[in-house]
Specification:
Blueprint (H helix, E strand, L loop, with lengths): L6 H24 L6 H14 L3 E2 L11 E5 L2 E3 L13 E10 L2 E10 L5 H19 L7 H13 L4 E2 L5 E3 L6 E5 L16 E4 L2 E3 L5 E3 L6 E3 L5 E3 L2 E6 L2 E4 L4 H7 L17
Antiparallel strand pairs: 1-4, 2-4, 3-12, 4-5, 6-10, 7-8, 7-9, 9-14, 10-13, 11-12, 14-15
């Protein structure tokens, strides 16, 4: 069952999402060759707690850490460790926060030093598909309209769209209805309603769409060992249109990137 949120609840969710955004911005300042993901995990947990939140992933379904860190061929749910990041790696950092009773949850794929043009394009196309999908999150559309838009864009480049993992509703629970796949047929799935809040998160592989699991019970990898990219935003349906609650602004400030990609999805109304 889809749980719509009031405007007041959406504003509380925005606070949770922005704490995740600021955490990822902090990580962006620290990440680089030689840095371990366990160091980043500890940094994130301290920052979240210092700012009135609780790490949303720590202990969720038994997960052992505050961040999911997934380098190169790992798609999602990688566990932080002491292996230093290497020049040319890419890594998805997925972070969750529980604050004032609501969750924030989003992700960004970082370049570690210089990466190949082939991988740069994978990251670019995957992030493009995120916003293409968000545009389809509006009154009159259905769940698979979002997935279909993401799928068409990514498959036009020959990339594999992961099937086993999907986005999801978000709110007082980390995972609410509906599931938000990154593939589908137009006009299929649950109808969007005012006040919905979701996490849209394309997970796109350079090669095959197929995946496999590590024996740690968490880490999911591409079946062919080729790299995977992952970007995620939290989005609310307000006045019939999609509004992003999270932001990559803090990441871009840390990395010196100038972008207006979020402008069309900024706050449309002021809460009275």
């Amino acid at each position: 069952m889809i749980i719509p949120k009031t405007r007041e609840e959406i504003e509380i969710m925005r606070e949770s999402a922005l704490l995740v955004s600021k955490t990822l911005g902090l990580i962006a300042k620290e990440i680089g060759p030689g840095i371990t993901t366990l160091y980043l995990d500890k940094l994130a947990e301290e920052f979240i707690r210092d700012n009135g939140g609780v790490p949303g992933f720590l202990g969720l379904y038994g997960f052992p850490n505050s961040l999911c860190v997934s380098p190169n061929a790992q798609v999602v749910h990688g566990i932080p460790n002491n292996n230093p990041l290497q020049e040319g790696d890419i890594i998805s950092i997925d972070c969750g926060v529980l604050k004032n009773g609501f969750y924030g949850d989003h992700a960004y794929s970082f370049e570690i030093g210089d990466v190949t043009p082939e991988i740069k394009q994978l990251l670019k196309v995957t992030k493009e598909s995120l916003y293409i999908g968000i545009r389809e999150f509006k009154i009159g559309n259905r769940v698979e309209d979002v997935g279909n838009a993401i799928q068409k864009h990514c498959e036009s480049y020959g990339y594999g769209v992961v099937r086993e993992l999907v986005g999801h509703g978000l709110g007082r629970l980390m995972h609410e209805d509906p599931e938000m796949p990154n593939y589908g047929k137009r006009g299929k799935g649950k109808l969007f309603i005012e006040g919905m809040t979701v996490a849209i998160e394309p997970m796109i592989n350079l090669g095959t769409k197929k995946t496999k699991h590590l024996k740690d019970g968490w880490t999911i990898l591409t079946a062919d060992g080729k790299p995977s990219a992952h970007f995620e935003h939290n989005v609310a349906l307000i006045n019939g249109k999609s509004e992003i609650l999270s932001t990559f602004k803090y990441i871009y400030e840390a990395l010196g990137i100038v972008s207006n990609e979020e402008d069309e999805f900024k706050m449309s109304t002021t809460l009275i």
